[in-house]
Amino acid sequence: MLPVQQKPESPRKRRGARLFAIWAIALAVIILDEVITRLLRPLHIPGLGIFSFITFLASLLLIALTLYGFAVFVRWTLRKLFWRVGRRLFLSYVLIGMLPFFLFAILLLTVGYLICGVMTHAALRGERLAGLGQLETAAFEYSLTGKRPDGVTKSTEIYDTNNASGAKLPPWLKSTTFSGMVWRDSRGLLVASRQSARDGAEPRTIVFVEPLDSEWTEQLQDKSGMTVRMTVEGANKSRKNGLRVNSGEHSFDIDDDDNGGLKDLLFNSIGRKVIWADVTSLTDWNSGATIDGHHELFTLIVNPFPNLFHFYFGAQADDYVRGLLQFMAVVICLLLVFYALAVLFAAVLIFSITRAVNRIEKGTKAVERGDFTYRIAMKPHNQLGEMANSFDRMTESIATLLVNVAENERLQSEIEIAASIQRNLLPKEGPQFRGVSFSAHFEPTASIGGDYYDVFNIDKTRLAVAIGDVSGHGLSTGLVMAMVKAAITTLVEEGAEETALFHRLNDLVFRSTERRAFMTLAFTIFDLEKGTIRHTNAGHLYPYLLREGQKPRGIEVPSLPLGVRSTISTHTAEVDLQEGDAIVYLSDGIVEAQDEQGEPFGFDHLEALLSQSADRSPSTIRDQILEAVARHCGTRPADDDRTVMILRFDNFHHGYAQKAVAVPVLEEVTA
Predict the structure, then answer these.
(1) CA pseudo-torsion sign 56, 61, 63, 66
(2) Fewest CB atoms less than 10 Å from the CB: which of 206, 209, 596, 605?
């Protein structure tokens, strides 16, 4: 079980408390100001305006905080209401599933209303054309009989060029046959003109003019059921009541009676009748010109819906409407059945999703408490079931991971202890001889490295050094290194010669490691009294002898590493030792260090660096080698352990191993 971290108090709660305190203070200021103002107003004390200003500011603050609080409350309420996934799904279903029906219904009603409006407009124009047709028939009858026809209204005007009435006609109307709507004295007219040819004389012109007045509109309403109100531009501006309509750059004022009949008509017709409008350009009475945008007639149409069917379908309109309504009722019932099935299916889906989410929520809360044994145990019939199974596998993996982490922490602790022991196995002091300086650097790639070096003070005139490299990395190499360290120390203390020492170490490594494991080892004895160097090697890099005035020279002694075979054949090289000589020992991690392109550091680079070194002190040579390797590698990490060990001999003929005298210690041992 993992400890549950306590959540700190939310800053929103603290901010809410502060805002509520400010709101309460503003309310208290308003109440206090009201009380103080009522008490001091009868005393007529000057300067009470400052209280009104303070009250104004407090009122603004109070209103702002109240609106903010209301918004926060609404947001909190919505979160509480729709916190559950089921409620959110239900709301989503309502918005996605039902809203399109309402929008589609609105669209259908809008399209239907537009169609009815266009049909109403066509019906009005049809009535106008029918009226013009009646005038043309009346004109023809008048030309035959010379009497006023019975079918025309009382307001119909008759003009005949055979009598004095023809003089009132404009010239263009006397000389043409015309049928249309005309503008005269800010009024709309239906005009039908007919010409009759006469032998040897000008044609006779008969013109019937019917004003579009209240009598015409009443006759239209009785005939078609449509209620219309007409006006022309610039008319009736003196009336206060009425309706003003703007059409482009023109405005039309429709008269209303004193009882407000027009407004009542429009208000009562909403939803029950078609309300439409028509703007028609009129021909000028005087000039006969028709110019769009000038002399327009505006007609407001109010038409009951049944009139449309009667107008277009005649006497059978009721049967047609009845059949249409029955068909729509059947379609609506079928749609409701399908919709009910969809609602039932959606409810099942919502229930299954909500149940799965609730189970997953319980699982997450159990994990939050640190209980990784909780299992949801749902069948993977859908994505949520697969998610639940993934959750179960995740908790199982986390539980296993926690066990592995604990085990890894234990192993890491043991490895750190082993690494500390390995560091302690490395020598803490250099050779105990005057005139001999020493420096070393050890850098493992892992917690435990496979490189090894050591220093032995054999007697008063001889010292020995050893450097080796165990193949591989990790704990096993550290164990082999520790074993070889103990064995070399024991053999050196027993006074074993080089050949016997290497034979016994080879047998130890061969028997104690896997067949593919081996170890390189270089062992050197420096005789300060005789001034000689005896170097024995088992597959390790040759050490470099640095001598004043000469190039770096490797002390080459070829041989196989330890542990490759059951027996080993070693050779010992003896070189003279002079004052000022320095010996450089390296592990293969130095020369094999690669840059970012995979190019190794190499022996040529190393030898050039050693030959250019003016200062041959061990610490300087060590630092130069390490800095050069670091520059070469750049950001690439080390692939192998890196070990450098350097000895320098100055005035060694006069040095003796004396424990009472201060001896040089290792300048750097890096673990």
Answers:
(1) negative
(2) 596
The single-letter DSSP state of residue 660 is: T
Number of C-beta neighbours around residue 328 at 10 A: 10
Distance from chain centroid for Cα 69: 30
In b/e form, how buried is each residue of 285-324, taking b as 16+ CB within 10 angstroms?
beeeeeeeeebbbbbbbbbbeebbbbbeeeeebeeeeeee
Is-contact 491 501, C-beta < 8 A? yes
- Check whether 239 has a pLDDT greater than 60: no
Nearest in space to 645 (alpha carbons), one of 504, 444, 439, 446: 439
Which amino acid, residue 404? Answer: N
Q: E strand or H helix at 498, and its extent?
A: helix 498-512
As a whole number of Å, the CA-based R_g of the chain is 57
Which residues face 526 on adjacent strands? 463, 533
Q: Would you give the distance in Å from CA 471 to the centre of its chain? A: 51
Could you write out the three-class secondary structure of 169-202?
A: CCHHHHCCCEEEEEEECCEEEEEEEEEEEECCEE
128 token code pair: 């106008």
| Residues near 158 by beta carbon (within 8 Å), at least 6 away in sequence | 142, 148, 165, 206, 207, 208, 209
Helix (H) or strand (E) holding 456: strand 451-457
Tokens of 407: 């085990």
pLDDT digits (tens, 9 = 90+) for 524-543: 999 988 899 999 999 899 99
* Token output for 160: 């005949």
Report pLDDT digits (tens) over 79-105: 777 667 777 777 777 777 777 888 888
Q: pLDDT of 279-291, one tens digit each? A: 888 999 988 888 7
Residues 167 and 220 sit within 8 Å (Cβ to Cβ): no
Q: Say if residues 91 and 99 touch (Cβ distance below 8 Å).
A: no
Report the distance separating Cα 286 and Cα 185, nearest Å: 10
Cα(217)–Cα(188) distance, rounded to whole angstroms?
A: 12
Identity of the residue numbered 451: D
CB atoms within 10 A of CB 59: 15
The residue to which tokens 């692939």 are assigned:
639
Mean pLDDT to the nearest integer, 189-203: 83
Backbone angles phi, psi at 510, to 5 degrees: -65, -40
What is the secondary structure of 285-339 as a DSSP string? Answer: TTT----TTSSEEEEEEEEEHHHHHHHHHGGGHHHHHHHHHHHHHHHHHHHHHHH
CA-based nearest residue to 666, from 441, 435, 423, 464: 441
Percent of the chain surpassing pLDDT 90 = 17
- Exposure string for 450-485, b = 16+ CB within 10 A, e = fewer: bbbbbbbbeeebbbbbbbbbbbbbbbbbbbbbbbbb
505 Cβ contact partners less than 8 Å away, ≥ 6 residues apart: 484, 487, 488, 491, 521, 538, 562
